[in-house]
Amino acid sequence: MIRNRRVKILATLGPSSDTPEMIERLFYAGADVFRINMSHASHEKMKELTQAIRKVEAEAGRPIGILVDLQGPKLRLGAIKGEKIEIEIGDEITFDQSEKEGTSKRIPLPHPEIFKGVEIGHRLLIDDGKMTLEVTGTKANKIKAKAKTAGTLSSRKGISLPDSLLPMGAITKKDFADLEFAVNQGIDWIALSFVQRVEDIAQARKHARGRAAILAKLEKPSAIKWLDDIIEVSDGLMVARGDLGVELPVEQVPGLQKRITFASRKAGKPVVIATQMLESMISAPVPTRAEVSDVAAAVFDGADAVMLSAESAAGQYPVEAVATMDRIAQQVEQDELYKDTVRTYQTPPEPTGPDAIAAAVHTVSETLNSSAIICYTSSGSTGMRVARERPNKPILALTPIVATGRRIALTWGLHCVLTKDPEDLDDMVDKACRITYQEGFAKPGQRVIITAGVPLGTPGATNMLRIAFVGDDGNMRG
């Protein structure tokens, strides 16, 4: 089964799409990776969804990735008397840690870490930024703030602190339990919410112990400040534009999206663009023109994946949303401007043997107009290095390890085929030609470019490039 596009589609599962029948339909509509949101899913539901995805995978004969998105710390106001109060601009409010119901003058805030991290002049954003207050005074157990906008404050609304670095990790006790259950289910990716610092990633990585890749969700200003360090210690990134647009001025988000995308591409790490990409399709069978342009911009920038959230999880048209995103991506990648645009921000290869080989593979493939590039990869690194170059030719990633195939399902351009390691170099070339022919990427007489690490099965040891012709029977010729 061939996708006629390079960018991958990440679809969130939920009430509208959590049956085996719907998961199968979403996959054939174009979903490459499925997201399970632990803000809403139980362990039993995660297990049920994982089994359904693996069944579709077995029937399709193609690795499918699964990403579990941890909830992360949720900061909320306490209870308010009468459930809500009206606030005017200039009103002064005291936040404290009392369990008593709030009033128009004081509101409970049951999060000690906020009182330790907030400073005078910092902003308090409530209810997804609908209300803004500025801190005017702080004590050990009290925060005084002045309202900068008017509106209604309701019980248990979420609160964000974009200017504060809170003395808390990104992983809660619930997250640790969810992470452990997920890796025991064979989940491929763990998405870490509300990352603030490098230590958050290190903590998740230590707990996962290599059993799943770690994807950092960039939602907070402090994560942008430490972007290069976070990229270095993460396996992938997500531009979580919803929360990022709450904690930062919304006009800054498009520029940050590009900055994160290009920084991730430079590092050879998968980057996902997420949130509200086809938002109107929650309740409409077609997207707005602006949404189509938004998806297209991410594809033109060379993002590894674009994500559907509520559109596929709770919307009325989940299959149509995936199919629409698939059609947009295909059309963009067929555009005459795509090839040059996606490589505009290409960076020179790192001064290592594997990166030099990957760059050479791209150059040779273009010069000889080969039909495909074939990468033998055990850890996925060879395929990801070649994908980093954003070549114009199809990339087949051949691996004997199903976990590798599932993990690289998130990476731009990689068409993964599970196969046993070849016995020797001749068998390696013959197998590559035969599979490329069988998968429909090459015809007899066409050239293919093969790269691998020799000896085979050595992670990260990309050191070989080979040119071969596909014979009449699909095997190597000459």
Largest sheet: 8 strands, parallel, barrel
Name of the CATH superfamily of the largest domain: Phosphoenolpyruvate-binding domains
**What's the CATH architecture of the largest domain?**
Alpha-Beta Barrel
- Estimate the global geometry from the Cα principal axes: elongated
How far apart the termini lie comes to 29 Å
Oligomer: single chain
Number of helices: 17
Q: Quick one: CATH class of the largest domain? A: Alpha Beta
Which structural class do you get from the secondary structure elements? alpha/beta
> Could you tell me the number of beta strands?
22
Helical amount: 25-40%
How many distinct folded domains? 3
Strand content: 15-25%
Low-pLDDT residue spans: none
In CATH, the topology of the largest domain is named: TIM Barrel
